[in-house]
Amino acid sequence: MSKFFTRCASLAVVLCISACGPRVSVPPPSMQAEQPISFTVADVRGGSLTLEDYRGHYVLLHFWASWCVPCAGELSDLQKFQKSMGTRDLAVIAIAVQSDWDAVNHLVNSLKVGYPVGLDKTGALEEAFQIGGVPATFLLDRSGRLIKIYDPADGQLKTMISGARPWAKPSTVEAYQNLIKLD
User: Fold this and answer.
1) Coil, helix or strand for 138?
2) Domain at 2-182: CATH architecture
3) What is the pLDDT of residue 33?
4) Distance between CA 134 and CA 163 in Å, rounded?
């Protein structure tokens, strides 16, 4: 009986957060260097995931979908990347889009993802970040502003990385460690 009650309570929290939709504040592209981004979405652990909680840290913001095969590989790679970064001031946050709770929870649990994972149930973040496909990855500075992100595929700095990348590759980890040292 208590297991049933716990599941019902968890579902009620999820439905409440989902029904209200995420709170999103993403500046237009022309202002991205000046204004910090803020959002709150439902977290897979039953709470909420608020970007403001990560102020003072770089944030690798990764959008993915449960049905996307390359995305599953990247979730594991990002886990290794986060571990390789150690206690450095870079947080990985993954936001599932175009997905349902059951599929997201199943994948996150089966891969033993240890970093924060949220769900953009309404598509508001996907729209605000103008994501044309998944996976898509952005980098935010310590103030929560979008900055150029190092692309491990070609070594270039970009506004957004679209497509899967080798996040656990030693040269990628080193590039991000150097980025943090420069700050």
Assistant:
1) strand
2) 3-Layer(aba) Sandwich (3.40)
3) 53
4) 6
